[in-house]
Amino acid sequence: MTTKLENLELAVRAVMGERTFDLITALGELTLVVGHADYLAVMTELRDNLSTRFEELIDLCGVDYSTYGDEVWTGKRFAAVSHLLSIANNWRLRVRVFAPDDELPVLPSVSEVWSSANWYEREAFDLFGLLFEGHNDLRRILTDYGFIGHPFRKDFPVTGYVEMRYDGEQKRVLYQPVTIEPRENTPRIIREQNYAK
Fold it and tell me: pTM score, two decimals?
């Protein structure tokens, strides 16, 4: 007797056909890693194919793999990770696609496939700098329109580049270079022999 996860894997393999892909099973979940050239077609097929029927895009987020794990990451730096839900089959699938260029990460938009991708892709653009080709309104959603950089990139400074404050005399918000002094916090360690009894 096949399990639900095995049935999902068979259905995804059938949809993928001759395309290049990886299927990873970990912690009871299935992850499909697909190439950027096939991404839009695969996502459309996963939605429309009767054997998969992923009607909902639950989440889409950006990921910066530049310092992933304990070892040096050798693959592409930026990826978009989507979580799909099939209500008809009661399945969940994670889809990962890497942007081909680390300097200018561009991926196809799936906002025409699932309308919920609209804000998710805007968030990934705003926080990671991922560009989604075909998105009809790709602009910042969480940071200020004049914000410089993408704050969830691992090379973005923790303190940022600018700070803002309200000036009572000028009666407006001012932007200025960050004035926070970088410092290193060393935690206080309490040894058991120093505990009061």
Answer: 0.81
